[in-house]
């Protein structure tokens, strides 16, 4: 990944957002910097030839990042305005209490970006004609799943980044190995549900009911916030109950 590459450019835009964050919104840095490092890791994986269609993955990853940047920028511009157009999962993440631990802010961002944004990003780079080609869709699905290995490799490093914030209890430190396994498990589980939701949204796109179904996904993703903020060991709970959301049949 070079500075002039599409992913290099989007990483530079993330850095700019981090540098320009006002002090009262410093809590946003937890997710933003986690996402920045993850995007860099995806860029390196593309350079290493770990995907079947690296050009497609690069375009997709940039589309994905742009959904976050758009929500972030829109919220900064219209924070005082009700009905500003910022999707509800992102508004809940952005408005979360600064008193929450760093992990909570990261999970709220992942919820909005993976559960709500990721199916939209996939549909932005997979046409309706593509869905009619089983071999192509299998290749797309496999590259989608290969992201799991990139994320799994980041779990320990990101756990260390959160530990560096100093906001960790003794029990959190004791449970670190279990928490890392739980993180890998729920990230894989949520990615499987994202693929299901992408298929559901594509069918809605063909049938002319896309906005309605996207609205349902927005509600489901926003409702997940309550589960993420429940007291207790959230990572272990998510490993059991799941992190992803599932669109029901229309």
Mean pLDDT: 89
The tally of helices reads: 10
The N- to C-terminal Cα distance equals 41 Å
- H and E order: HHHHHHHHHH
Could you tell me the strand content as a percent range? under 5%
Radius of gyration: 18 Å
Percent helix, as a range, is over 70%
Biggest sheet, open or closed, and with what strands and sense?
none
Low-confidence stretches: 168-175
Silhouette:
globular
Per DSSP E runs of 2 or more residues, the count of β-strands stands at 0
Classification by helices and strands: mainly alpha
Please give the structural blueprint.
Blueprint: H1 6-20, H2 29-47, H3 54-77, H4 88-94, H5 102-125, H6 134-163, H7 170-174, H8 176-207, H9 210-228, H10 234-241
Summarize the structure in short:
By secondary structure, this protein is an all-alpha fold. It is built from ten helices and no strands.
Can you give a write-up of this model?
With about 250 residues, this protein is mainly α. About 75% of the residues lie in helices and about 0% in strands. The protein has helices at about 5-20, 30-45, 55-75, 90-95, 100-125, 135-165, 170-175, 175-205, 210-230, 235-240. Helix 1 (about 5-20) runs parallel beside helix 3 (about 55-75) and helix 8 (about 175-205) packs antiparallel against helix 9. The chain starts with 5 loop residues before the first helix and ends in a 9-residue tail after the last helix. Residues about 170-175 have low confidence and may be disordered.
């Amino acid at each position: 990944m070079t500075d002039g590459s599409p992913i290099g450019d989007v990483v530079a835009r993330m850095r700019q957002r981090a540098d320009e964050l006002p002090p009262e919104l410093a809590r946003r840095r937890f997710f933003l910097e986690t996402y920045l490092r993850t995007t860099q890791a995806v860029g390196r994986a593309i350079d290493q030839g770990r995907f079947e269609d690296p050009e497609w993955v690069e375009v997709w990853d940039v589309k994905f990042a742009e959904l976050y940047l758009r929500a972030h920028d829109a919220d900064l511009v219209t924070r005082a305005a009700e009905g500003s157009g910022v999707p509800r999962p992102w508004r809940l993440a952005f408005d979360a209490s600064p008193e929450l631990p760093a992990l909570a802010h990261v999970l709220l961002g992942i919820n909005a970006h993976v559960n709500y944004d990721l199916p939209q990003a996939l549909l932005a780079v997979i046409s309706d004609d593509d869905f009619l080609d089983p071999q192509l869709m299998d290749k797309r699905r496999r590259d989608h799943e290969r992201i799991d290995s990139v994320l799994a490799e980041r779990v320990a490093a990101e756990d260390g980044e959160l530990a560096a914030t100093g906001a960790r209890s003794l029990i959190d430190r004791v449970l670190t190995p279990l928490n890392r396994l739980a993180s890998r498990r729920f990230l894989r589980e949520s990615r499987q549900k994202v693929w299901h939701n992408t298929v559901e949204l594509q069918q809605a796109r063909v049938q002319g009911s896309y906005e309605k179904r996207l609205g349902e996904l927005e509600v489901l993703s926003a409702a997940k916030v309550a589960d993420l903020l429940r007291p207790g060991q959230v990572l272990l709970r998510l490993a059991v109950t799941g992190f992803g959301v599932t669109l029901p049949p229309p």
